[in-house]
């Protein structure tokens, strides 16, 4: 038996009344004995809907024989066909909806799915059927089947249409069904409200027209064709202010961005004009203290900037934030979701943050081609229902201009609609014609109320067009001549709407022209006044001096008693907790970590870093792929009761904790989750936000987030983040994947002190590094930290363990002496420098060799960027007989840190000294897949590093 959603089945059987019930019962009795004994159309009903609902509920209808005599099979066929037609209108009305202002799809006409003739029905047939047989809650004026069909077509095939059959929740579907079929979905607005909407549209259109005439040929990605987006955003902002929402987080790409900045965010017209002008007024360029538009030391193009606005309503303030966005269109989506989650979370108490989804919500505006085309959209939609990432529902708007640059939609997607991707996430969809402002305002109102009630995403496909090319310098008639011939002849929405208001006698025939002239005069006056006051002086934007400050200013050591107390607290368990014995045995070993003669391994040092940070009142958010346990089973930050399955986080049980600690396993996604965490760190700079890749090379997938946001956002937009990215890195003979975290890629983007890139080789070093990063939060010195972290071969190596005094004294050392190697300043001939695992392996080989290494001085470069040049120069001055500086690494020569450090090292060598490289040769793949080859290569690298003979390669030619 095939059954649709329960509500549809119940709704179907509720259409049968009185005499026809008996006939249906008799036919069902025959059907049960032999399905082929009943007429084909009747069989199809029972195949689809099963037994009549009243029979399932033991409802008995009398006088069956009399019913048969008065109700013919033909009547039943007509009724069932009418029921199918009505259901088809609800499900497929969108196929016939009037949602296209222009283009080959704009002509509407009945599709077969909702054509009565396709069901063998005539108008006479429909008129003969009582309305309530087809529509239980039909309005009183709807008397028969024809009225039902016409009324439902009005609701489902007009300039606003709906898709929600894919939503499985009964309550949500019932809410939408009632809203639509009560006739309340499309608002009835008063004449005054309609006039205000027209005025708003004239301002939007007038602003764009003025820019087009004044700054001929300059890019601006105008909103024209989708002007109604502005009053839609007005509506949602006003609703949020009424509901005392504290934050509205917005993300959008280029299309319409300047209009949204001007009209929704309140960016002054003169500032926008100045950004077009070749010699802007210094006073019109925002200063360093501005929360708005153009602070950074490289800056960005005008249509990438966001802004902030505060709206006060009595004692309440609503903040509207439009995120900065690069040309990678949809990648701002997870960033603004991160903004939103951060604004919802209360992190002031221990345990998980306490979240209030009504404190903030998110509005994301997509392009139609990008929504379906870019994978980050699907990744971000997947976050919407996950406990670590849910933001209580996002309002999505597709700014649908029917084209992707020059690409027609049939070449850009395999689906009918750009919005079809959302169906997989059970997101309701409204499709609406951008030439009908009333329907558009109605759509945004529904979206807001749905999000408010159900805390789920909602999508509006706003179907319009693009008045000009992809940008105003582009000629669209080359690629879409037919479409643009129609667009050229199509009136703007201001004219379309004004004509509709004239027909209702709401405005007179001159009203639109008067409004347009008023807006033109206003903008002309602002522009003229600005030009008269213009000077040629421009403001030079420099890197903030705080980024040049010494990172050594932060104290990160803690006393031994506190260290032991925290360690003891982490080993406590709730009463009755049934821990996994093997795990508890491992963790129990940490108890004596700080006793005399003992050392704290990597997992212990990491746990104590987090414990001490939340003790200091700094909240932590930690997410990643398998981060709760840790890929290499070293962390065990979340324990699972073996009997009940309940989870326990030891860091939640610390009595000393003064802030929240949240750790979540993330979905198998890099782009969306890393963008989300970056956004969280921007919105909540006082929180230490950490993202960990399962293996370091997983971060490759998120390269755009690193390039466009993490690495460059401070310079482009002034955004400060102290996000930590943990990337497991190290060569273990496991093949090209999961060996290298691609350290070279982060070093390539390192400049202007935008990042800290570190490769610590001991638990204490990691402890101090993480605590230093936490202390920077909220300060101008803050910047993201990229950490190469150990994998299984190193994470349990006792050589990375640290004694108590290394935690209680000192700080993170960017340049660290190689342990267990005697320093002989006068006899040293080679200075060996390297980072991470290879230096630990060298330490082990030297210690076991029994040879004399008084000719060797070795240093671990633990912070590769900012490069500790002064510290290294100081060491070199103490080594008068150095003949060569040797850089050693396990990565290929064209990867790893060599190409980055060689410039610094070259500056330090003096006459007679050589700079040499030891490591693998240039390779296209990071590592071999043959364990024996790896072992041979690794041993060769180590032997060359500790044998004072010619080996490796000089830097000549590099």
Q: Layout of SSEs?
A:
Layout: H1 6-13, H2 19-33, H3 40-49, H4 53-56, H5 64-70, H6 73-92, H7 123-127, H8 131-134, H9 145-156, E1 160-163, H10 170-181, H11 191-214, H12 229-242, E2 247-252, H13 257-263, H14 269-276, E3 307-313, E4 316-322, H15 333-344, E5 345-346, E6 354-355, E7 360-367, H16 368-373, H17 375-383, E8 394-400, E9 403-404, E10 407-408, H18 409-412, E11 429-433, H19 437-454, E12 458-463, H20 481-489, H21 493-503, H22 511-532, H23 560-570, H24 581-588, H25 602-615, E13 620-624, E14 639-640, E15 647-648, E16 661-665, H26 671-683, E17 688-692, H27 703-710, H28 713-717, E18 724-728, H29 743-748, E19 756-758, H30 763-776, E20 785-789, H31 792-795, H32 804-808, E21 815-817, E22 830-834, H33 837-849, E23 856-861, E24 863-865, H34 869-877, E25 884-892, H35 898-908, E26 914-920, H36 931-946, E27 953-954
Parallel strand pairs: 2-4, 2-7, 7-8, 8-12, 11-12, 13-16, 13-17, 17-18, 18-20, 19-20, 22-23, 22-25, 25-26
Antiparallel strand pairs: 1-11, 3-4, 5-6, 9-10, 14-15, 19-24, 21-23, 26-27
Helix pairs in contact: 2-5, 6-9, 11-21, 11-22, 12-19, 14-22, 15-26, 23-25, 25-30, 26-27, 33-36
Computed structural class: alpha/beta
Query: What's the β-strand tally?
Result: 27
Q: Work out the strand percent.
A: 5-15%
Number of helices: 36
Low-confidence stretches: 1-7, 57-70, 279-296, 535-540, 954-958
Strands ordered across the widest β-sheet: 1-11-12-8-7-2-4-3
Radius of gyration: 34 Å
